[in-house]
Every structure is written in C-alpha cells, then in structure tokens.
Amino acid sequence: MTIHDHLAKGWTRDQMAARAARELQDGFYVNLGIGIPTLVANHVPEGIEVTLQSENGMLGIGPFPYEGEEDADLINAGKQTISELPHSAYFDSAASFAMIRGGHIDLTVLGAMEVAENGDIANWMIPGKMIKGMGGAMDLVAGVKKIIVVMEHVSKNGDPKFIPACTLPLTGRNVVDMIVTDLAVFQRPDHNAPFKLIELAPGVTKEDIRQKTTAQYIE
C-alpha cells in the first residue's frame, strides 16, 4: 500500500460533517457542537429546512461568512464567526437552555473523546488539562431527542475512541444514538440495543474497523 492509498482511506472532516447532515429532517431544530459538528451548517441537504440553535443565544444560524464579511459580534458557542438569516432570533442563555432542557431541540451533533458501547459519552475534559468549563454538553445530551457523535475513529496516538467503557469523566450515560467517524457509521434503533455498523467510508473494510474498535458492535 502506498502512502497515497493510506491517505485516500476514509472521510475528511468535511465529509464526516456532510454524512451527519444527511440525518437532518425538514423542520428540525438542531444544535451543533464545537469542532467538526459546526461544519454541518454548510451541508444542509437541498429542500430541507432546519433551524440551527447555538446555546450562547441564537436561533437560525446561516453558513460561515465569506472572508471579509465577518461580523465579530455574531459568533456561535465555539466563538467562530457565523452569519444570520432573515428569521434569526437572539435571546439570553437562560432562554437558550430552557429550549434545550425542555426537549425542544430535535437533534444535536457533538464531538467526543470517547464513546462507550452502551452509549455513554465523554467529551468535556481530560483530567489534569486546563479547561474553561463544561459548556452546554451535559444539558444537550440530557435534553435533546437524538444525539449524533462525530469524531475521529482513533485518537492522535492511535487509541480507539469507540470502546467498551469510557475512561474519562462522563458527559452523559446511555445517550448516543449514532456515531460518525472518519472510517464508519454506527447506529442503534434505541437505547436498549447495541450499535450496528451501517456504513463504511470509502476504502475502509470491516477488518479495518475491527482492528481499530474495542467496543462490541453488530456488523
């Protein structure tokens, strides 16, 4: 296998976001987490209307602005500049979290450091590292109807991230519905069922997934 062949395997970050965007449904209210999930805003399918919510107090988020058109006052929860739409609405953090905790958000797309085979997620801290706080992650996984995790399949040092049990502090227990990695997609029909491998990224084999996944799943 050449280096080029190796690089061609799997999805880019943008392609991972595009795959997650295929789960959007017309009329959905959607919250996008920091990192790769923010790219989902650029891949909303044709003919689908969704309203993006940012927990810092905005409903109705447009795509990322072109260079030179940024407004420093318009940012998402990840402090990235964003664009507004004709129907965008602004409100305080209390109203934003009332939407999330009240079950009014249909779907959230989040990053993660670890996902366990039972749907536990760890995505807010690594012990010993400086962090700014939990942010909205714990509220999102507790209050939103469907949780999609978008993450690299393995960590920077090659360790699997879809594992039997999380080793990092948990954000939520048994909450994840779908996992999109750079190599594959896993889904489960409900929170009592195991995850099933439903899709492979280009150039990736089932054997590749077995080698890089320690969690139990159905093929």
What's this entry about, in short?
It contains five helices and twelve strands. It is of the alpha/beta class and 219 residues long. The chain is globular.
Note the topology.
Layout: H1 3-8, H2 13-21, E1 29-32, E2 51-54, E3 58-61, E4 84-90, H3 93-101, E5 107-110, E6 114-116, E7 121-122, H4 137-143, E8 146-150, E9 162-163, E10 178-180, E11 184-187, E12 196-200, H5 206-211
Parallel strand pairs: 1-2, 1-5, 5-8, 6-9, 8-10
Antiparallel strand pairs: 2-3, 3-4, 6-7, 10-11, 11-12
Query: What is the terminal-to-terminal distance?
Result: 25 Å
The Cα radius of gyration reads: 17 Å
Please name the fourth-level CATH homologous superfamily. Answer: Glutaconate Coenzyme A-transferase
User: Which shape, going by the Cα principal axes?
Assistant: globular
Characterization of the model:
Strand 10 and strand 11 form a beta hairpin. By secondary structure, the protein is α/β, with parallel strands linked by helices. It contains five helices and twelve strands. The protein has one domain (3-211): Glutaconate Coenzyme A-transferase, CATH 3.40.1080.10. It has helices spanning 3-8, 13-21, 93-101, 137-143, 206-211, and strands at 29-32, 51-54, 58-61, 84-90, 107-110, 114-116, 121-122, 146-150, 162-163, 178-180, 184-187, 196-200. 17% of the residues lie in helices and 21% in strands.
